């Protein structure tokens, strides 16, 4: 395995710069997830690492080698795409092993690698089947197996689960994470889905407009976002952001306030749960219910605060009526503060 280092990495298309001199070091064996909205530059960055996009400035090192000028096959990395790109006329065995056909390995070693990859991925019963007889998740495993048999120093994944339904995505998230733990491989993974990022990554890299906004362990970013964009992008449902200020010791929501108050729906408690928040320096909101989303263990409650929709959480067996006026409370420790002008996080007061 190997480290991957980006040093002042830049990408331009014509006169338009889309990646703005980013720096990043991925440790040997680390699982790093690039996350951000469409057009943020995450896939372009991955494709430059793979050698599929030309570097406009800066350096990419894989291990100790600068690879800017090396073609993809000389970088000894493997890439798995959103499109499985497996051959319909070939069996699973042939698809997994196709990347070895031109290698100098002997026949027995090629067969051993295919069998080993199939065993790790649970594909042994399907080796003689063709892709048409496989599920979407099984086809994605075939694409992963084809990457694995090459014994690369790093794996690059570009939105590999986007074509799967919700249940299969959840299953494949677990399988890819378990595979990483077994192989100890270096992985750079691109997704727009923050749930994938939170559940799979050792470290998340949040990107926007060709810049890295924040990087860190998933819960560090969730708990301490550096700006409003990251606060709202990481976490489901999105963090509530309200204009406000501080009166005495307590944060208060009010239009035109000098700061922005952020509180996650899971921390903004309604109904009997609100009664458990005795912190007088916390945030209290009132407003009429506009919608409810029972999810089983909890109920997400949408309500209006001065024309802004806010989401809070009630116990699963408490479903308020639409139009009812409710009270929601969050403890002081759950309140995030951001500068209203720069949208950057403020130090806790």
Number of domains: 2
The dominant shape is: globular
Number of helices: 8
The chain-level mean pLDDT equals: 92
Give the DSSP E fraction (strand runs of 2 or more residues). 25-35%
- The N- and C-terminal alpha carbons lie at a distance of 44 Å
What fraction, in percent, of the residue positions are helical? 10-25%
Q: What is the structural class? A: alpha+beta
Q: What secondary-structure arrangement, pairings included, does this model have?
A:
Blueprint: E1 4-13, E2 16-26, E3 31-35, H1 42-50, E4 57-62, E5 65-66, E6 77-80, H2 92-97, H3 107-120, H4 136-148, E7 154-158, H5 166-183, E8 186-191, H6 194-200, E9 203-208, E10 211-216, H7 218-223, H8 228-233, E11 240-247, E12 250-253, E13 259-263, E14 269-270, E15 283-294, E16 298-305, E17 308-315, E18 325-330, E19 336-339
Helix pairs in contact: 3-4
Family: Belongs to the ABC transporter superfamily.
GO molecular function, one term: ATP hydrolysis activity
Protein name: Carbohydrate ABC transporter ATP-binding protein, CUT1 family
